[in-house]
Amino acid sequence: MGDVLAWLLFFFILVAILVMIVFQLMCLADLEFDYINPYDSASRINKVVLPEFITQAVLCFLFLITGHWAMSLFCVPYLYYNVRLYLSHKHLVDVTEIFNQLNWEKKQRLIKLGYIILLLFMSLFWMIYSALEDDEHSF
Prior knowledge:
This protein has 139 residues and is mostly helical. The chain has helices at residues 2-32, 38-65, 69-87, 102-137. The chain is built from 4 helices and no strands.
């Protein structure tokens, strides 16, 4: 039962990361269609960048301490990319350059979205597998 609850926690953390990435994509789309000004868009995106990085690091750490080595290894490239962005000070969106880098920012977040969706489906699979395995052992 504990393994199922752990996978449920992982699933909800991944959904939270997914929501943060979709929010960033929506802000970029609003900026592209001129529904929002660059300053508001950059400030909204920059408010959720660090929480996204921290949440993803916590998820990777939780995979590690619960003994789910494969999922932890799947999280490492995404974590490495986030750490590399943070250390090079390229994790925040610049207000003055946001229009020039709009396509790159969207592409970057779409790749992150695809990666998180892959992890979400893998987590969902393992959650169902663990639930069926626990149900099988209860009889």
